[in-house]
Amino acid sequence: MMIKKSLIRIAASVALSISGASGKQPNVVIFLADDQGWGDLSAHGNTDLNTPNIDSLAKDGASFDRFFVCAVCAPTRAEFFTGRYHPKTGVSGVSTGRERLNIDEYTLGEAFKKAGYATGAFGKWHNGTQYPNHPNTRGYDEFYGFTSGHWGHYFSPALDHNGRVVKGDGYITDDLTTKAMSFIKKQTEAKKPFLAYLPYCTPHSPMQVPDELWDRFKDKDLKMVHRDPKREKQPHKRAALAMVENVDWNVGRVLKQLEDLGLEEDTIVIYFSDNGPNGWRWNGDMRGKKGANDEGGLRVPFFIRWPGKIPEGHQVEEIAGAIDIFPTLAELTGIQRDEPKPIDGVSLKSLLRGKDAEWSERTIFSTWANRFSLRTSQYRLSDKGELFDIAADPGQRKDLASELPEVMSQLNGEMLKWRSTLPNKGERMTIRPFLVGFPGGIDNQLPSRDGKSEGGIKRSSIHPNCSFFLNWTKPEDRIFWEVEVATTGDYEIELHYTCPAADVGSEIELSYEPTGAKVVSKITVAHDPPLVGAEQDRSPRTESLVKDFRILNMGKVHLQKGRGTLSLRALKIPGNQVADIRLLNLRKR
Description:
Blueprint: E1 7-10, E2 27-33, H1 52-60, E3 62-68, H2 73-82, H3 86-89, H4 108-114, E4 118-124, E5 142-146, E6 158-161, E7 164-167, H5 172-189, E8 194-199, H6 211-217, H7 234-260, E9 267-273, H8 295-298, E10 299-300, E11 302-305, E12 314-321, H9 325-333, H10 349-352, E13 357-360, E14 364-368, E15 371-375, E16 379-381, E17 387-389, H11 405-419, E18 434-436, E19 443-447, E20 452-454, E21 458-459, E22 469-470, E23 478-485, E24 489-498, E25 507-513, E26 517-522, E27 550-559, E28 562-572, E29 580-588
Parallel strand pairs: 2-8, 2-9, 3-12, 4-5, 4-8, 18-23
Antiparallel strand pairs: 1-13, 3-10, 3-11, 5-6, 6-7, 9-11, 14-15, 15-16, 16-17, 19-29, 20-23, 21-22, 23-28, 24-27, 24-29, 25-26, 25-28
Helix pairs in contact: 5-7, 6-7
């Protein structure tokens, strides 16, 4: 049978307007968890943990039962920020530059800032480091967190505060929340509407959590198990659940602050996650986890609360996704989107409003790593060409492709049509150069994550995010970055390095081609701190351990506008190695 396009009648109890109880535009608080699965909440039936604060958002507002994001972090954020499918935004990966938005994309932060909101982001950004993709040039007045895809240490790590490197204060989720609460208080005192975005980095690995929470779970008798229990890794699972309880505690801190400040009825609060769980654990019998284009990798919690505007305990069965958040918030708050490109998402307001509304049947598309899937209200067409009736088979156990050829034909046709709208039909694009000297930026950070190497130089981990270069031992070895200089001028060069005392003395050259501009400096100070992180890990990691890097001021180099290559080479190596390298920073003078 063919899938029928139909109109669904939606009933609720109260109407939505675009002003809060005070008659002013509502504030917005958005929580985004990292690698939290749909099943990692007590509200969804998981009895192994307790998440009363997150659950309260569903109790006091609306919960979307079938809310879909992307299989991994950066693509979800790109779709949430722009309302557009991520291949259209330039995002095709999670590191080495593939996580960056195209310059001409219009973001949620920019729209709210233009509308007069104070805007702050506190946590994991993951859509670009260099200006203009830094949060401060994507619409956020205040940024505190990190721009990489993951961070290697969660206890007082080095972080980014408005483009400058600073040291964090305590466990990262607690620290991010404290900074966000200070921002909320400041804007409230200034009587200015605000957008506070809290993209937490947990329960993403490394699996680090304070002792108090770990002690609750390390010996706990866990009842909820994955559909294939043999795949579970207990230390990882226990740490993930403990980290989610920490997220819940921090959500509660913000909700309590809104109550104490009298802002509850004037604030829209959203909670969701960026992809499925980062390990095999209970997830409602769904197939797949993070990285998969199946229900388990794509379906996440989504709660939205606005007291007096969105009915309490309202459950939405219709499918929705990350692409819908921007247009929904724009309509709820009354701001203008003004994006130069058409969006793919739709406003969900009609699913929340308090009178009968019409809702059209739709299809949501998903892609990751050159694999494609789609979801209708009834079916999922998998990236393996399987067809599942999710309404009857939520665990994707019975392939109906051969039994329903008409449905397969229609959905394959929809997929081909959608892919035809994507750049390169959704296949991965060539990595673009990294921007340097964009107007408005002072520091131009080029982390090792974004660089390449030749010779014997290696990364400290197979995962580029939060890694550093090591094993630099020969003059023919090279570290380089493909860049596009936006502004001609002199740039002060800072190199973040470590070097043991026995190897001090290497002479290093930074050159810029095609102009041949160069600067030469020498490592004269030993700096050989220990690697940290392993002692706090609750489960073995695959990410790099971290350490403290010292800054070597190499001097100035003149860069000409245009595309080029910045290369680090060693002219003299008196010891066994040159140095380990974490970051090259170019400061416009």
